[in-house]
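ok trying again, last paste got cut off:
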Amino acid sequence: MISVIIPIYNEEENLTTLITQLNGVLKDIGISHEIIAVDDGSNDGSLNILKNLVKKNKLLKIVTFKINQGQTSAIMAGIENSNGNIIIPIDGDLQNDPNDIKKLIEKLNKGYDVVSGWRKNRKDSFFSRTLVSMIANWLISKVSGVKLHDYGCTLKAYKKDILKNIKLYGEMHRFIPIYARWQGGKVTEIEVNHYPRLNGKSKYGLSRIFKVILDIFVVTFLNKYFTKPIYIFGGFGLFLLLLCFFSIICMLVLKFYYNLSMIQTPLPMVIVMTFVSGILSILMGLLAEILVRTYYESQNKPSYLISQLINFNKKK
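nice, full thing came through this time. structure:
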């Protein structure tokens, strides 16, 4: 079964056309399907239009948010309320082409867990959208090691099994392929169509790149240091303590070999600051270790992912 998820925020002029197009495409594919429209606190007529559409379409389902909570939350709500084993998010602004869904599914059926859309010929403003996206995609690919041309393209296809251990927060929906790869999933991309926005206004701008940079730090930390936070906090603390020791040596050399008084340099202040900060960083690492153990043990969560067990007898 296919579950198509549409995150919607103020798209009243596009919804009727989009749902009509999706119905035609999904009917031609010939697989059982559902369309889940997630109204992300729209303040226009989007919700009323959806309610009218659902009366004529039994396969259309609506999830509504009380307030605007962002595209990631909308996609996550759609995933958690879906019944399909194939999940396909698509934008509600008619810039994605519903006809590309068939290509995504065909590629997914060749053994992939995630098929990401690549808007190679993107029809957006170059400086405010396309350039920002190019920079963000380059940064994400470099840091994560998962090389995709277009992380920001909503149109993707996922096998639901690969999503069951993924929880999305903030603006993390674009990083699902990375999470999937880290869990052993096979990820690829294909070119998809992209059209200029005809109705409504874009919800993104230049400020998005700063959010992406911060999200990259979060994703990298969660991947490399979540189960061993002492490595990053303790490592930084040890660096500061080494800097403190080096400053002490410099201060003594200046005092006894160059007859320069300690108070004539900023070194005493540097020594105090690096020593205190180093000790605090190590203590934070120890506290983070306690929290990680509490997180796993209190919920009986494993700290590993098993692909399969062979020749094991089931425990009684």
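cool. The beta strands are 2-8, 33-39, 60-64, 86-89, 114-118, 156-159, 187-191. Residues 7 and 75 are 6 Å apart (CA to CA).
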